[in-house]
Amino acid sequence: MEGVVPEFEVRNATEADLPAIVEIYNQSVPGGWSTADTKPVTVADRIGWFRNFDPAKRPIWVAEIDGQIVAWTSLSSFYAGRPAYDATAEISLYIGTAYHRRGIGRDLKRWVIEQCPRLGITTLLSMYFDHNDATARINESLGFEQCGHLRDIAVVQGQKRGLIIAALRIPAPEPA
Ligand SMILES: CC(C)(COP(=O)(O)OP(=O)(O)OC[C@H]1O[C@@H](n2cnc3c(N)ncnc32)[C@H](O)[C@@H]1OP(=O)(O)O)[C@@H](O)C(=O)NCCC(=O)NCCS
């Protein structure tokens, strides 16, 4: 499969997808690369989190290949959802480890960016550990601008890590 970019289909996630979403999330925990969680989470832990998503404004999507969920991505409100930041959202993106390095991460992030105008989002934020090289590469290629680097702000697997804040400005749709 190396070098081949598989076609995937994206749809809004349903609660029935939560076990697959949690499974993919937990695959990333041992890598210490992405999430600030240091232990696996459970479906029960995540039900409240899942129910806060809203397909009209702050969706969570799953990507499928041949009907199997291989990745998920979501948009969350910034700064606890204060209304002044309605047009700003933070992206999360998790690819199942068996599907890493096949171009899915970049393609899925590009797809999310394309959805932002209809969701009223004009600033997309990406926040990631400063050793997450894949996210840095994807963001650079998609036009994100690094606007902050909070050094040594986290301890992951016993090591101090920093957080990069990157932003992509997305033009609002022209009024009809
Ligand atoms: C980060 C992540 C989304 C990347 O997805 P992916 O589908 O493997 O990435 P892609 O195949 O699109 O690769 C994008 C680039 O990153 C590089 N890359 C991918 N994995 C890498 C790794 N482990 N180390 C270094 N570079 C890597 C690729 O070579 C490619 O480089 P290019 O710019 O030269 O083409 C995926 O590794 C993942 O889900 N990680 C766990 C969760 C996470 O970190 N999410 C982001 C923060 S929310």
Task: Write the SSE topology.
Elements: E1 9-12, H1 18-28, H2 43-51, E2 60-65, E3 68-77, E4 88-95, H3 104-119, E5 123-129, H4 133-142, E6 145-156, E7 159-169
Parallel strand pairs: 4-5
Antiparallel strand pairs: 1-2, 2-3, 3-4, 5-7, 6-7
Helix pairs in contact: 3-4
The structure holds coenzyme A.
Coenzyme A is lined by residues 28, 33-34, 92-95, 100-106, 128, 132-135, 137-138, 141.
Explain the overall architecture.
By secondary structure, the protein is of the alpha+beta class. The protein has one domain: Gcn5-related N-acetyltransferase (GNAT) (Aminopeptidase, 3-Layer(aba) Sandwich). 26% of the residues lie in helices and 33% in strands. The chain contains 4 helices and 7 strands. It has helices at residues 18-28, 43-51, 104-119, 133-142; strands spanning 9-12, 60-65, 68-77, 88-95, 123-129, 145-156, 159-169. The protein has a 7-stranded mixed beta sheet with strand order 1-2-3-4-5-7-6. A hairpin with a 2-residue loop joins β2 and β3. α3 (104-119) packs across α4. The longest helix is centred in the middle third of the chain and has 16 residues, at 104-119. It is globular and about 50 Å long. The model has no long low-confidence stretch (mean pLDDT 93). Residues 28, 33-34, 92-95, 100-106, 128, 132-135, 137-138, 141 line the site of coenzyme A. Coenzyme A binds at residues 28, 33-34, 92-95, 100-106, 128, 132-135, 137-138, 141.
CATH superfamily: Gcn5-related N-acetyltransferase (GNAT)
Question: Can you tell me the number of structural domains?
Answer: 1
List unreliable stretches of 5+ residues. none
The main sheet comes to: 7 strands, mixed
- Strand count: 7
Strand order of the largest sheet: 1-2-3-4-5-7-6
Query: What is the averaged pLDDT score?
Result: 93
Rg computed from alpha carbons, rounded to a whole number of angstroms: 16 Å
The top-level CATH class is Alpha Beta
Calculate the terminal CA-CA distance, rounded to whole Å: 44 Å
**Total helical elements:** 4
Helix/strand-derived category reads alpha+beta
Bound molecules: coenzyme A
- Under CATH, the topology can be stated as Aminopeptidase
Shape: globular
Q: Please indicate the percent range of residues in DSSP E strands (runs of 2 or more).
A: 25-35%
Helix content: 25-40%
CATH 2nd-level architecture: 3-Layer(aba) Sandwich
- Secondary-structure element series: EHHEEEHEHEE
